Amino acid sequence: MNEYIFYTNEGFTIPPHEEKEVENCQVLGRAFGDNEKNACDNLVKDNPWIKDCGFDIEKAVSMQLLTKETKQDINILVQYLIEDEYRKFQELGSPKEHIYHSLKRLQEVIG
Q1: Where are the domains of the chain?
Q2: Positive or negative CA dihedral for 105, 106, 110, 111?
Q3: What is the pLDDT of residues 46-60, one digit of tens each?
Q4: In 1-111, which ranges are E strands?
């Protein structure tokens, strides 16, 4: 199951100094689903306040989040491949375009 975060630039927020309005993005929530649409449907179903407050879910932006399980899977794959690809990388004279670079970046992100 995938996790998504939904946010919108509709509306305003109230900062600590309440005399000013701040125009920015507001997080509507996070939701799980098999895909973005399914997660959006789950978000609206579980959070009726979104529509009650007048937010247009069609204007919301969504981003898929990296779940802990997916992060673990990526880490397993990177660890499995990186040593072998490093040897190949060295044998080829450290080319600029090699999968080893991608594996190293993933290793740093997943860390």
Answers
A1: 2-65, 68-110
A2: negative
A3: 999 999 999 999 999
A4: 2-8, 26-33, 61-65
Could you tell me the two tokens for 22? 């701040």
Six token digits for residue 85 = 């690809």
The Cα 33–Cα 44 span in angstroms is 12
**Diameter over CA atoms, the chain:** 65
Distance CA 69, CA 100 (A): 23
C-alpha 66/C-alpha 17 separation (Å) is: 34
Does the pTM surpass 0.90? The reply is no
Tokens (6 digits) for 74:
């990526």
DSSP label of 96: S
| Distance from C-alpha of 64 to C-alpha of 39, rounded to nearest angstrom | 10
Distance between the two ends of the chain, CA-based, in angstroms?
A: 23
Q: Give CA separation, 107 vs 7, 20, 76, 86, in Å.
A: 29, 43, 10, 13
pLDDT tens column, 77-88: 999 999 999 999
